[in-house]
Amino acid sequence: MTYFKTAIIDIGSNTIRLVLYTYDPLRGLKEVENIKSVARLRNYLQVDNVMSEEGVQELEQVLLFFKDILNDYHIVDLRAIATAAIRQAQNSSEIIERMWNNTGIKIELLSGEQEAYFGYFAVTHTLETPSAITIDIGGGSTELTYFKDKELQCSHSFPFGSVSLKQQFIQGDTMTNEDGEKIYEFAKSNFETLLWLKDAQLPVIGIGGSARNMAKLDQRKKDYPISGIHQYEMTKEDFTNISREVTSLTYEELKQLDGLSSDRADIITPVIIVFQALMDIVGSETFQFSRKGLREGLVIDRILKDNPTAFNKYNVFERSTKFLAAEFDKPLEKTAHFVQLTGIAYFEVCKIGAFLYNAEDLHMLKQAARLFHIGEYIEVDAASQHTFYLLSNRSIDGINHGQRVRLALIASYKNKDDFSRYSEPFMEWFSKDEFKKMRDIGALLKFVYALDASKRNIVESIAMEQSGDNVKLKIFTKGNAMAEMYQANRQKKHLNRIFKGEVTLHFIEKEG
């Protein structure tokens, strides 16, 4: 599949969204625009479950607005899907036909099972977590899935959500303690009907806007030093503290709360109660967040049908770094030799005992090599600073936030002082030994980068020999290695710190 632009219109019970995407086989899938309208279609379902004329007109006006945007962006590849509000409407067929006649937009009505599946599909293709329970609370329905080793085991869709719970249990905009208890018992009794949830002892992964707001609230409370919520994790204690704080606030106080979207101020409290009930049933100690859900699942599924190798849910991190490197002008063909040489250097350092071999460390090192000093794309003289900022603040599929900072510290390594400066906000995240390991691995990477100075693959291999405190490094070349010699001697000091002794370099040119 070649480059293309596509759009998803997601007609939910609380919001209607238009999301524009681009896909490039070299750089991957990117969200380029996200426009929402808080239509609250669930509120227009009458006692007989017929959507009122006012609600249908609201939907039509939003779709006509979105059609103008699609025309301006010259996007003709569109998939419009509807979930609980239209699914539960007795006049759903009439609504879909009217939208087609009046807007030219064909709406596909998803079942609850389809909605759950595509949420699971996005999570497993963008998170590394092997097994978990997912929950996506919309305005009118709640989807749950259980996957094991990335394979879907069970799924279910409940016909209640944030808007319907508010309508059913809360008078006015502020939830009382009694309201909260009723919502908890209601959610718990429904969840208990699914035997696969009981004491699953797995992480719970939240999808969608309400989960996203929970993550932002926790980050605000902790004065979190990096951005993004995809793959953010909260402990059960963190979750309980946020729940206690939020459910004690009035509607007016919630509207002023940093990190909470004002259009969710009246529905966040029942959502938190539902999350809490699920964690209790599952026996989960961890709540994770996925920014990727139904819409991304639909797009990834479409791409994979045309190109089955475009995404690999069993190797999310490596695929993500491949796309990211290409975006900053370091495609695979430019970095392959450097990555290979880095792996050889790691094994040599382990062989003489300076590092203790660890498969996860090696994998992280190779991905850091692929992204080493990508900040050069912005400014060569400030490559290290830009690299650290980009990697630590950008969502990278397949790794959690701690691993993302670890990657950023290694891939941005320039010297000990800059490493310490970048590390300062994260002193509580890692132990002293972990910081030392990252610093040493970064130093090794910085030296190996010098061995690829001319970008001509001159250095074929290396070998290390230790005698007492001294290390002899043999560097085997296949041509004039003047540039590599110069840079390697400049960067040799980084190796000296790793070995705490003198390193001597011996360049050996291959004959013929």
Automatic annotation (TrEMBL):
Gene3D superfamilies registered for this protein in UniProt: 3.30.420.40, Exopolyphosphatase. Domain 2, Hypothetical protein af1432
GO biological process: regulation of transcription by RNA polymerase II
Record SUPFAM superfamilies: Actin-like ATPase domain, HD-domain/PDEase-like
Residue ranges of every copy of the Ppx/GppA phosphatase C-terminal domain listed in the record: 355-475
InterPro entries for the chain: ATPase_NBD, GppA/Ppx_hydrolase, Ppx_GppA_C, Ppx_GppA_N
Domain named Ppx/GppA phosphatase N-terminal: residues: 30-304
A matching Pfam family: Ppx-GppA
Family: Belongs to the GppA/Ppx family.
UniProt protein name: Exopolyphosphatase
Species name: Viridibacillus arenosi FSL R5-213
